[in-house]
Design a protein that fits this description.
Blueprint: E1 3-10, E2 15-20, H1 26-39, E3 48-50, E4 54-61, E5 64-71, H2 76-93, H3 99-104, H4 106-116, E6 117-118, E7 121-122, H5 127-135, H6 139-174, E8 182-184, E9 193-195, H7 232-242, H8 244-251, H9 253-256, E10 268-280, E11 286-299, E12 307-313, E13 320-323, H10 329-335, E14 337-338, E15 353-362, E16 371-379, E17 385-393, E18 400-408, E19 415-420, E20 424-428, E21 431-439, E22 445-453, E23 463-469, E24 476-483, E25 493-505
Parallel strand pairs: 10-25
Antiparallel strand pairs: 1-2, 1-5, 3-4, 4-5, 6-7, 8-9, 10-11, 11-15, 12-14, 12-24, 13-15, 16-17, 17-22, 18-21, 18-23, 19-22, 20-21, 23-25
Helix pairs in contact: 2-4, 4-5, 6-7, 6-8
């Protein structure tokens, strides 16, 4: 093995943080560390010192040392390069190079050390990659949490509305008036049912139950929906106190599909949603490109249940198109029409139904990139860097709004001076966020120039880009919607959403 251990220690040899990369006893590593200060006598100014069995490669960090213990057969040039990376990682997590700060950040330092060296050998990573891995920031987790919170809020709103309906039914039954019939549509694909209640039937509503939490006391009395003296507000507050009822309702597929209809949505509403994952190199090369799109259909009126959606695909790129299993694939392939295989069946009501998916992938074609971002850091005077960043819209039919380009900054007390910019910029922690309100065919390009001292070019990567857009990258659109029976046109509304899940320049 090449690298035996990496240690942050004091000048007296006291180890603050130490990570061994080979099998070694505690007494052995403590003996090696105890011998290090004795070899440093005489005030010699070197970067390494050797014994009969090991080599110590070190670098001072104020009153501390960053120390690597290697075998004598290791390559001293590679050891020094590894030492420089370790020496940059320590200030990344320790704002002050003191014993207390190093002990406070011990776990972050150990995680970072493990990303640099594995089984005694150096990994091919830089400081930006180590920072990104240790942060373990999951965009998928954020999306999941946001969806879950939305579902819980919707479930609570449905419970509240249901409670009001039950209260109204009870009042109508009390004064001898029969309740009005209720129409309900099943969540299954293409199914609907009609249910009614007469005045003579008891008004009992079944509420789905969930297993009780372990902290809930056993033997708790159940809620009585029809008890006297209980109004809608108290019923909602008791549901909220249960805690699990909203989560249970949110997890049911039949209820999760019911979403409140926006005011500008018509009885037939189409939603085009596209998500982009892109990783590009510093030279503009595309390392990974994946575009995924989904067309969903929502019908709010039963008279428009049997319709056909006419889709126009003007995209010349190799899009992979896939329709829902219940959609007539032959009609879509030959005529671009989305309709059910069984024409007598209607689409489901009051639910978002995905009818068409598309996907576009590439690992080398930079012509697919919607927005190119180039970062040019260069060494300046006084140990600083002059950074020039420019963007250009590559697809003229797109309009990008609220564009944010996040540039990482070096650790420590770096000074940032911005000379030229489009839009606006803000500095948050160790990042400079460049914001552009809109990018379109008339405003395609822009640049940002700033100076950071002290810094090196690698400090400004990876860059991340985000935006929102009501235009789609794939040139797929809905031309018209007609009735399946007589071909008469149907008025509809639509919305388009295009945003990146991950857009990085590494």
């Amino acid at each position: 093995m090449v690298l035996i251990a990496a240690t942050v220690c004091t000048k007296s040899g006291k180890a603050l943080v130490s990570r061994q990369f080979v099998e070694m006893t505690k007494a052995r590593i403590e003996g090696l560390l105890a011998a290090f200060p004795k070899l440093m006598t005489g005030g010699r100014q070197h970067t390494f010192v050797e014994t009969e069995s090991v080599r110590y490669v070190y670098q001072p960090l104020d009153k501390l040392y960053m120390l690597l213990i290697t075998t004598k057969a290791s390559n001293i040039l590679e050891d020094l390069e590894t030492l420089r990376l370790f020496s940059r990682v320590v200030p990344e997590y320790c704002t002050q190079l003191t014993e207390a700060e190093v002990l406070n950040q011990a776990f972050n330092l150990l995680f970072a050390f493990d990303e640099i060296v594995a089984l005694g050998y150096r990994e091919n990573v830089n400081l930006a990659q180590v920072r990104s891995i240790v942060e373990m920031d999951s965009h998928e987790e954020k999306i999941y949490q946001a969806v879950r919170q939305t579902q819980e809020r919707e479930a609570a709103n449905r419970m509240r509305e249901r409670a009001k309906e039950l209260q109204k039914k009870r009042l109508e039954a009390a004064i001898g008036q029969p309740p009005r019939s209720q129409m309900s549509f099943g969540s299954g694909f293409g199914s609907n049912t009609m249910s009614s209640q007469s005045a003579s039937e008891p008004t009992v509503e079944k509420i789905p139950t969930t297993p009780a939490r372990e902290t809930r006391p056993i033997g708790r009395s159940a809620m009585k929906l029809g008890s006297r003296g209980t109004d809608a507000d108290s019923f909602v507050s008791r549901l909220r106190s249960e805690g699990d009822s909203a989560a249970a309702a949110a997890s049911m597929p039949s209820q999760a599909t019911e979403k409140p209809v926006m005011a500008d949505h018509k009885d037939v509403h189409l939603r085009f949603e596209e998500r982009l994952n892109l990783i590009a190199g510093r030279d503009g090369d595309v390392q990974n490109f994946e575009l995924s799109g989904l067309l969903t259909l929502r019908i709010s009126n039963e008279q428009f249940g049997r319709i056909r959606v006419h889709v126009d695909n003007r995209d010349t790129r190799p899009l992979q198109l896939q329709t829902h299993p219940n959609v007539d694939k032959e009609a879509f392939r030959s005529q671009g029409v989305i309709g059910l295989k069984q024409s007598q069946r209607p689409f489901p009501l009051h639910s978002d139904v995905g009818v068409l998916k598309w996907r576009l992938t590439s690992n080398a074609d930079d012509k697919l990139v919607p927005l190119s971002v180039n970062c040019w850091p260069s060494d300046g005077t006084g140990g600083g860097c002059d950074v020039n960043i420019e963007y250009e819209l590559e697809q003229d039919h797109l309009t990008l709004s609220d564009v944010n380009i996040t540039i990482p900054l070096p650790s420590g007390n770096a000074s940032v001076v911005v000379h030229q910019w489009e839009g606006s910029y803000t500095q948050k922690g160790r990042s400079l966020i460049w914001s552009i309100p809109i990018i379109n065919g008339q405003q395609k390009t822009g640049s940002l120039e700033f100076t950071v001292t002290p810094a090196i070019p690698n400090d400004f990567f990876p860059l991340t880009v985000s935006w929102t857009s009501d235009t789609s990258l794939a040139k797929i659109s809905a031309v018209k919607i007609t009735q399946a029976d007589d071909g008469s046109p149907v008025d509809f509304s639509k919305e388009i959403s295009f945003h990146p899940d991950k857009y990085e320049i590494v």
